[in-house]
Write a structure and sequence with these properties.
Elements (H helix, E strand, L loop, with lengths): L1 H20 L13 E7 L2 E2 L11 E5 L4 E5 L4 E8 L5 E8 L8 H12 L2 E5 L2 E5 L5 E8 L6
Antiparallel strand pairs: 1-2, 1-3, 1-9, 3-4, 4-5, 5-6, 7-8, 8-9
Length: about 150
């Protein structure tokens, strides 16, 4: 009996030790799997300034930790990480290099990825903020099969 209780104590201590060293992985299900249409960029409503057929949007793939979409003219993709304290970090973002008439919105949109540090999710609205909590971009969730 003493031997069995000794093993139980060792197993419990081992489990406790491993749980202290583990890191928590944020649940990306809250933003992944949705088509996020860009509606506000740097405080301006952008719907009237987009190229027809090239709606700026982003889709988060939580299984691969990849983000991809269209910036208004060019497609983009890259990695992202989120944490439980609503931090977001984009990495290795790349885009195609086509020239279009309205590139200003696209330039601002692509800059969001290097400046975004926090996100706020309220219902079907996703906001990306910089380190000063200034709003960089606002998206609304649409059906994912919109372009598929």
């Amino acid at each position: 009996m003493k031997l069995l209780s000794g093993y139980v104590v060792i197993v419990l201590l081992t489990c406790f030790a491993f749980s202290c060293n583990s890191t928590k992985v944020a649940n990306t299900d809250t933003i992944s799997g949705k088509y996020w249409k860009l509606v506000v960029l740097n405080g301006k409503d952008i719907e009237d300034y987009t190229t027809p057929g090239k709606e700026p949007h982003i889709i988060f793939d939580g299984n691969e930790n990849r983000a991809y979409g269209n910036a208004g003219c060019n497609n983009f993709s890259g990695g992202y990480e989120i944490s439980e304290d609503s931090r977001i970090h984009f990495n290795a973002m790349a885009s195609t290099k086509m020239m279009c008439e309205e590139m200003e919105i696209e330039q601002f949109f692509l800059n969001v990825f290097s400046n975004a540090e926090k996100y706020i999710l309220t219902g079907d609205t996703l906001e990306l903020h910089n380190s000063k909590m200034e709003t960089l971009a606002i998206f609304v969730a649409m059906k994912l099969n919109k372009l598929q």
